[in-house]
Amino acid sequence: MSSFELVTYNQPRAFITESFRTLRANLQFFEVGDSLKAILLAGGGFGEGTSFMTANLGVVFAQTGQKVIVVDCDLRKPQQHLIFNVDNNSGLTNILLEFKEPEDVIKDLPIAGLKILTAGPPSANPTELLGKNKMRQLIASLKEKADVILLDAPPLAVVADAAVLSKAVDGVLMVVRAMVASHDSVVRTKEMLTNARARILGVALNCARMNEAVENYQSHYANKEKIIKKETEIKKKAPVKK
């Protein structure tokens, strides 16, 4: 998988990868992976980076040895099959339209423990399809197959899909993109989820300005590596006591 968006897979030592590990740890405080399994990631508008957050969070959860399934619930403009570079010939819509069983369309990925359920062929009525009891049954069955299920949803302020889905999951993680989302849009998104009686786990801030933090992080570990290397060289040169 060479997608530039999979930073947690392609750049395991990058600062942004550490940020995803921190987000994973914070979610584990809510017992995500234990009592909470199905988590919906939802943004307010276009360009929040929900698909990016879902994919990379799936990678870091799988890297802990947990079984993870990423589900692309954006039936209008799916992105997960593009990020993970897999086909989208069959997927979620095939299951909800009762043509396929989950095991027939869930795909394995090169990362141990990580699987994907792509969106599948376009549907004429995405909101109605996601609101069917069949979707609740699917999420329940996926909980038996995995420790963590991460659902990628379309923007809340644009369509009702995410609000409908929020009733079928254990919790919702709001995705907010810095310099894109306005204060009002974040408030409206929270109100929509509250009205849907969703359990909001928190907010993931995407694309925050972290230049200074990145520089400090990189310089700290670069200096630490130099110190360790120097200490190793000194030890090698030190005379052996008889």
UniProtKB/TrEMBL annotation:
Pfam families: ParA. Keywords: ATP-binding, Kinase, Nucleotide-binding, Transferase. GO terms for cellular component: plasma membrane. One of its GO terms (molecular function) is protein tyrosine kinase activity. The keyword Transcription does not apply. This is CpsD/CapB family tyrosine-protein kinase. The lineage of its organism: Bacteria, Bacillati, Bacillota, Clostridia, Eubacteriales.
